[in-house]
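User: Teach me something about this protein's shape.
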Amino acid sequence: MPKEKVLIVEDEEDVLELVRYNLDKEGYQVVTAITGEAGVKVARTELPDLVLLDLMLPGLDGLDVCRILKNDPTTAHLPIVMLTARGEEADIVTGLELGADDYVTKPFSPRVMMARVKAVLRRKNAAPPAANATVRVRDLVIHPGRHEVLVKGEPVALTYTEFRLLHLLARRPGWVFTRSQIVDAVRGDDVAVTERAVDVQVAGLRRKLGACSDQVETVRGVGYRVKG
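Assistant: First, the predicted structure itself:
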């Protein structure tokens, strides 16, 4: 039985063929486009399981493609992994805020690229736990209903904001959340959270998590995630 279908939107022929070869080798169905306009059209007609999207495309660039796909109800659910050049941190952040799921920087190792593809597809196929469901990530256990966090079985006292931040990240292990996404999700009517304050909250959270502090990872120039 063939694996999922992946759309590659990439105008560099050597990169396109490298990615196609590795996807073919793993048994994925592959469709391609070499312009942003064609990528949008193929995404709408083929409805792939994942889109590998180069940001530096002629004409309609990758960020525009991402914006169009995420604003179209037909394609909004499609996971997107961005292919970016080094030094494009601002574009990476913008892409993630538009709804992209992950990114791979060029030049990339085919093994790393395939690992990211498989991880995103796994997350796509695994629904996040319900808001009140207990979350377990390695030695970390979060009980939302009791507002309780256990590290290796021992309770840890967190503030309201720290708890919401940790719960947000832990419900989707491996997903990268930008600072602005964290602010939008964590901020309450009576809680002032700014992007700069997120870094302070994460630092305090790590201190309290002790042996599990390294599970909250910084993704340089982008935001934070909990290791899966």
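Now, about its shape. The chain is about 40% helix and 20% strand. Residues 2 and 17 are 20 Å apart (CA to CA). If you'd like, I can walk through any region in more detail.
User: That's plenty for now, thanks!
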